[in-house]
Structure formats: C-alpha cells, structure tokens
Amino acid sequence: MKHVRKLFAEYAALVGIWIGLLILFGLLSEHFFTSRTLATLANRIPPLTLIAIGMTFVLIVGGIDLSVGSTLGLCGALTGLALVDWNWPLPLAILLAVLVGVALGTGIGGVSAGLGIPSFIVSLGVLEIARGLAYIATDSQTKYIGEAVEGLAKPLPGIRVSPAFITAVLAVVAGQVLLTRTVFGRRILAVGGNETAARLSGVSVRLHKTAVFTICGMLTGLAAVFYTSRLGSSDPNAGVGLELSAIAAVVIGGTSLMGGRGSVVNSFLGVLIIATLDAGLAQVGASEPLKRVITGAVIVIAVAVDAWRKSRSNKAS
Amino acid sequence: MNNKPASVLWAAFLAALTCFVGCDSKPAAPSSSDSTAPVKAAPAKPRVALIMKSLANEFFKTMADGAEAHQKEHAADFDLIVNGIKNETDLGAQVDLVEQMIAQQVDAIVIAPADSKALVPALKRAKEAGVLVVNIDNKLDTDILNQAGLDVPFVGPDNREGAKKVGDALAATLKKGDKVAIIEGVTTAFNGQQRRMGFEDAMKAAGMRIVATQSGQWEMDKANNIAAAMLSEHPDLKAILCANDSMALGAVAAVQSSNRAGKVAVVGFDNISAVQPMLKDGRMLATADQYGGKLAVFGIEAALQILKGEAAPEDKTTAVDLVTKESLAGKE
Predict the structure, then answer these.
(1) Cβ separation of A35 and B26 shorter than 8 Å?
(2) Are A191 and A183 in contact (CB under 8 A)?
(3) For testing the chain B interface, which of A17, A23, A34, A41 should be mutated: the one with the most B CBs within 10 Å?
C-alpha cells in the first residue's frame, strides 16, 4: 500500500493534468471523448514517445541531444531509399535506420564525452549534418512508399491501436525498468547527479555518457521508421523542431535539465499531455496563435505544478 | 484527506486507460459523453474541415479568413472547422490533423496539402472512413493517387499558367539574353514545381538566361539570404522570379540592401496585401492573383455540392490574373 501511494505521488500531478485536458476537450467538443479520438491520439505519439525516452536518458546524465529531429529525417529518408530504390525487405530497412541512429548517437556521445565538449554543441553540429544528408539522400524530394511501410502505423483490428503504439509502450516500460531496476540505471543517475563522486566510486563516466546517446540514437532510428510509416512516405523535412517537443515533454515529466533525476514514465505522460493538447485544440478549431499561447502556458503550468508537488512532498516526508 | 482527490484521479486514469486499450464505438467516460451522444445522432448540417498549410503565411491566413467569413454568411448550411500547421514543411502535423478530423467524423475535408505525395495515404484513410476529400491550392501527385487507387477532385488555379503570365509581363520589360534567377518554393510541392515551370516557360520563350534556381522554402527569410547570394554572384542580374510573395518580399529587401533597387526587377505570386505598396512604387513589377481569399471557399462550395449530389466529384480550374501597377491603378 505504501508503495502504491508512493507511485501515486510520483505520477498523480501529471496524470491529473492529462485527465483534466481530456475532460476539458470532452466538454468543448462533442466528438472528442470517443475511443476513435483516443485511438488516433495513441497512434500519433509513437515517434515522439520513443525520442522522449531517449532524451530522458540523455538529460539524466546532464547532456542534451538537439540532433534527434534531423536524425529522424535522415533515418526516415534512408528507410524510403532502402524500401523503394533498393527493394530491401522491411526488417532490413528498419535495421538500417536503427543502425544509422545508433551510429550518430554514439558519435555525438563519444565526441562529447571523450573530448569533454558540451553535447549541446556536438549535437547542434549533427543536427545540420544529418539534415543535409537527408536532403542529399532524397534529392530534396518526398518519396512515396505506400503499402510496404504503412502496416506499422495501421491500427490493429479489434484494439484500434497500431503496432507502433504497442512498441512505444513496451519501450516506455523497458526504459523505466532499465532506469530504476538495473545497475546501469543507477550508474547513469549517479553520473548525472554527481559526476566526480561517480568517477571516484569507479563508474566509467565516459562509457555511460556515450551509452545514453547511443540509446537515444537507436530509439530515434526506430522513431523514424514509425514516422515514415504513418506518412506512407519518406520526407526529408521530417522532424524539424521535434527536438524541442521532445525536450518539452521530458521536462514536463519532471526530468531535470541539470541531470541526476528523471523518469521515463513521466516523460511518456509529458508526451501524452502535449499530444492531447495538440489534438484537442485542433478538434475545437482553435486559431494558430491561440494554440501556441495555450501550449506554451500548459508547459509552464505542468512544470510548475510538478515542482510544487515535489516541494510539498519533500516537506511532508 | 490528502488521498481522496488522488484516488479519484487514479480511478479516472484507469478508466481512460481502459478506453485506450479497446472500448468500441461507445463513448468512454459516462460523465461527459452520454449526454451529448443523442445530439450526434440527429441529422445535422454538413460539417466541413478545412485543413490549411501554415497560417503564419498571410496567403493561407487570408484563405482561412475568407472561408470563415463565408461560413458566417451561410451558417445555416454548414459548420466549419479550420486548422493549419506551424510551418509549411511539417507534414506529420498535417497528417495528424487529417486523422483528427476523421475521428471527428466530419463530412468533408477540404485540404491544401503541404506535400503532394505524403498526404495521400492519410487522405486515403479519410476516404475509406467515408469522408469526402476535396483538394485545393496544391494539387496532389496524380501518379501517387493512381498508385494508391484514390480519386480526389482538385479545385484550384493553374499555377503554371499563372506563373507564365507573370513571367511574360516581366519579359516584356527585359532584353533578350538578360540574366534572371528563380527562387522556387518547397521543391516537394506540386504548385511550387508548376510555378517554377511557368516561370521557365516564359523566360525560355522570351530568350532570357536563367542563371540560378534555388529554393527559398516559401519563406521570406530564406529567400532573402538566397537572393542576397544570387545578387553578389551575378552582378548583372536583371530579375528575380519568386514563386510566392513572401519570398518576393525577402528578395526585394535583398535588392535594396545591395543598392540595386531599380536595376533588378522582382516578381512574385499570390498578391498578398503586403506587396501592393511595392507594386505601386515599383519595387516589385508583378504578381499573380489566384484569389487566395476565395480558394478555400471554392473548395468548400464544391464539397457541399458533391455532398448534396449536385455536382460530380471532378476537377475545377479557377482563375489566375496578372497584377501590376497598372492593374492596381485601374481598380482604384
């Protein structure tokens, strides 16, 4: 019971905000609170969810990865090339996307941890490189893929959610277990919390810092496949600005930008909040300026509520 | 005390989760949906969703405003939901909007696709869900439509013809062999490609030399940088043809900051209000008016007629007219 209560304290604020949004939009639009809308919502979030998981790990070690949007563009472009121009089977194309993501992520992590350069700068460089490569790979053209890739994003009959969504939820669970129940998880929390202390106690800081970027890159590669699948096309402009949405989701989830603290499940809740807000505002036909103002306000409010709850529960204990 | 509101939340969370996992067409939460369900059942006026590109671009803003004004005048005939995306290249967001509107169970989607190919699968899903789709502004790629087995009526202007008119007006002020440059829109968009080709048709027919063609992604800022680069690369450049007016504004600024006002002509496309003073004082030579404010209205009207069975779902070409200093003066 005590355990349940603790779990509760951790997630209640964000779940509350999310439910609040659902109810609000349910009242504002007669067509919002239907399983159809919720399934649509579920099926649009897999790419952002996967990237937010990766970003959570990166922020926990005190890093940041600005390249995820461009990496998604590049990996998506390669998926299109592989499927259409090279006639690769889908699993091989997915593998290619994931491996390219892993390579870029490892590159960012390796260079920044190895040479002591802030990951902000290294990933900013890769943001440009990957976008440029995406344009080269696609010749700046959208490539229509069609059936070959759409299956991943198609709702499964009966349960209405797509394989992509199920994969994303499994990844959230796996990410949370990795973070809270394994030695690796405890070590990266230690590295993010106090790097010197971690080093003195024998944790390889470089290795762990690099590893989180590898994870982030891998998840971004997979996210690219799901994004491409939803469009049924590969788009060289895919994911422009996605890094900011991912960082916003993770920070709404209470992960510290300073490192040392974070939760994958909360990041997922952050994604849900952002996506629900997007969907709801579109459904009621809010004007573009209003959408931006409200989205910005909700980000600030969500973070503030979370901080307030945390300070209160700290006092109570 | 402290736990009570929390447990309510928890219960609500579980209820919502259950819904995610799979309740069927029944509304999920009894509290908010049951009361509204019967309303939906009543035969209502058609609901039309207008899905635009970036509403930060004045052209699309004008189009959306025109549609909303039209709906207010005919409020008894249909309902309208207008949505746009943040920037012109955010295809994912536009696909989200399409799916959102399918979930909303609108009767028709009138869409200005941000990409001629990538929106096809989502629109196919709309059609499969029984939603009428009408394509405006940027024509969907015919090959891809055929490949996907989809038939979508297009209501809009012939961009290539319109661009050619602008190009012809420009050519009349130049000498054969003069150097010109083209700033095209997003290369993936059909209307951008058509306008580029229209410009090229006119320039080739008049014997001009096209020394550079680059994409300004439809944006003022990008076009400004590109125009500045073109101007320094080609000191004897005589004209810049821009595939939309936002980019033309960027090009005009670049011409002025390089002190070549009056020596390099700039033309655009769309006739947004910001370019009218420029046409009057000669900073811009010409643009084309495809009646952007009405484009969405044409699309919505076509959709309503098809819904009522009054019209066949087929393509309709709308007018594109040349706008110059003279034509503006004529109007006043």
Answers:
(1) yes
(2) no
(3) A34
Q: Are the beta carbons of A35 and B122 separated by less than 8 Å?
A: no
How far does CA A214 lie from the centroid of its chain? 14
Tell how many helices (H) and how many strands (E) occur in chain A.
14, 2
The answer for residues whose C-beta is within 8 angstroms of residue A188's C-beta and 6 or more apart is A57, A60, A61, A179, A208, A211, A212
Query: How does pLDDT run across B103-151, given as a tens digit for each residue?
Result: 989 999 999 999 889 999 999 999 999 999 999 988 899 999 999 899 9
How does DSSP classify residue B53?
Answer: E
CB count within 10 Å of CB B95 equals 28
- Contact: B91, A235; criterion CB under 8 Å: yes
Contacts of A265 in chain B (CB under 8 A): none
Q: How far apart are CA A94 and CA A83, in angstroms?
A: 10
Chain B CA closest to residue A162: B21
Token output for B76 = 């008894």
- A157-166 pLDDT, tens digit each: 888 889 999 9
For residues B68 and B60, give the distance between their C-alpha atoms in angstroms, rounded to a whole number.
12
Asked if B19 and A38 come within 8 Å (Cβ–Cβ), the reply is yes
Q: What is the ipTM of this complex?
A: 0.73
Give the nearest partner residue to A150 out of B29, B39, B121, using CB atoms. Answer: B121
- Give tens-digit pLDDT for A113-129: 999 999 999 999 999 99
Query: B25 vs A278: CB contact, 8 Å cut-off?
Result: no
Tokens of B42: 């009543």
